Amino acid sequence: MELSRYLKYYPSSENHGNYILFSTWRLSKIEIRAETFRAIQNGEISPGNEKLLAGLGMLVSDREEEKRSVLTLFDRANKYSTGMDCIVVLNLDCNFACKYCFEGGLKGNLYMAQETADRLIGFIKERFTDNKKTLLVDFYGGEPLLSIDLIKYISRELKAFTEEKGASYNFSLVTNGALLKRKTALELAELGLINVKITIDGPSEIHNKNRPFKSGAPSFDVLIKNIKETWDIIKINLGGNFEKDNYRDFPLLLDYLEKEGLTPEKLGLIKFDPVAKRSERVISPTDYRGGCITLDEPWLLEANDLLREDILRRGYKTLNMRHKLCMIESQNSYVVNYDGSLYKCPGFIGMEEFKIGNINDRVSDYKDTYNLELWKNDRCIDCEYLPLCYGGCRYMTFLRDNNVKALDCQKEYLDATLETMIKQEIKYGLRVGK
Fold it and tell me: What is the spatial distance between Cα 337 and Cα 410, in angstroms, rounded to a whole number?
């Protein structure tokens, strides 16, 4: 047998001379002794160790067969998937005035109409074929809870439909959290709400500056109060958007959560991300123009390591390493805008050239529109990081190049960060979220 094409190894920080092996394809990890590592390199590994490492995907009998498995991951996922998922943009209105708003100039008094909601339900029913077992809708905005009656209506219809077929319906919310009261959470949980994502930008001083109400009033205390009232009803995941000049203050939010009784067992995942640069298509001359278009900035590498460590050290959960399964490549995933137009990624909402149809019409062929399978090239295929990257993010490529023709290669970023992330996962074990 031979070493996997998709294998990384690092010296152990805890045990001098040992090595940590990580399979980017199987997402497995193990620490082995130096003599075992040398035996692998020399082709003298014992039968027992060979069997163990083969079971973890680190030794393979055929590297070409392994490569074919990696290259056909999306093909197999599309062929055998029993689920369907949709991001549904209910409106482009909001009760917040976030300084870096992702939707920028697209925002306004724009809401999904009842007639469009009915067509959406029909669109989903038509594509939820007999082999499908799970339906997940992610309600999005603007602020989705400004359209709560429509959430209830759509959910009642889809819940009844899936249950009649012996399948399941659940939904999630990407919300600013200001309208998530206990009564609301209880009502929505009965209809299938399983989790929400709320953004809190660090401690109160930073958050209130970045994410105030439209009136200018601070929102931080409102969100903390709502999270305290609803954490026992639904899973609450927390996000936060940092910048170069404030990321070192974000751990203060974790201290505050613990002090307020929002301890690790009461919250889902916590993940902090840099503010992303927005497309010139959706911002006005007076809008915020900061943000990142690459993960390779030195300060950002430091910020990611520091913040992930602080989350885990305090006992909170965050994302672990996983395959890059972008919804663009999934045949069973759609983004539905408030007007019924269809896209494959929420980042491209409002850009005509990335529309793939309308819920009234047939979905168009979007292979060239989104440059599907751009990662099927010699450079990516031979890269040990392919299962963690699959060509990167089309939206980040668009921000950089104004098109999606090039790769968003993450090799430099993973070279700089993967060792630390793997060692964090070993160190903190079960605290890392699935």
Answer: 30
Structure token pair of residue 227 = 């999270």
Asked whether residue 32 is domain-assigned, the answer is yes
Q: How far apart are CA 19 and CA 10, in angstroms?
A: 6
Task: For residue range 251-273, list pLDDT tens digits in order.
Answer: 999 999 999 999 999 999 999 99
CB 394 within 8 A of CB 366: no
Residue 188 belongs to some domain of the structure:
yes
Q: Which domain holds residue 25?
A: 2-71
145 and 218 belong to one structural domain? yes
Taking the C-alpha atoms of residue 16 and residue 162, their distance in angstroms, rounded to an integer, is 55
At residue 102, φ and ψ (nearest 5 deg) are: -60, -35
Q: Count of residues for the chain?
A: 434
Over residues 393-419, the mean pLDDT reads 92
Task: Determine contact, residues 199/176, Cβ cutoff 8 Å.
Answer: yes
H/E run at residue 205: helix 204-210
Stated pTM of the model: 0.92
Domain co-membership, 19 together with 124: no
Report the 3 state secondary structure along 361-407: CCCCCCCCCCCCCCCCCHHHHCCCCHHHHCCCCHHHHHHHHCCCCCC
15 lies in the same domain as 63: yes
- Determine contact, residues 39/46, Cβ cutoff 8 Å: yes
**What's phi and psi for 141, nearest 5 deg?**
-140, -150
Q: Under a CB-based contact definition with an 8 Å cutoff, are residues 197 and 173 in contact? A: yes
Looking at the DSSP bridge assignments, the partners of residue 240 are: 272
Tokens of 147: 């359209």
- Give the mean pLDDT of 98-107: 80
Which residues, listed in sequence order, are joined to residue 134 by a DSSP beta bridge? 83, 168
Q: 189-224 in b/e burial notation, b at 16+ Cβ within 10 A?
A: eebbbeebbbbbbbbbebbbebbbbeeeebbbebbb
Classify 135 as helix, strand or coil.
Answer: strand
**Owner of token pair 């160190």:** 427
Give the C-alpha separation, 326 to 321, whole Å: 14
Q: What domain count does the chain have?
A: 2
| 45 and 124 part of one domain | no
Q: Is 303 inside a domain boundary?
A: yes
Structure tokens of 409? 């290669």
**Look-up of token digits 């500056």:** 209
Tell me, what CATH number does 95's domain have?
Answer: 3.20.20.70
Query: 63 and 178 in one domain?
Result: no
Q: What is the pLDDT of residues 348-359, one digit of tens each?
A: 998 999 999 999
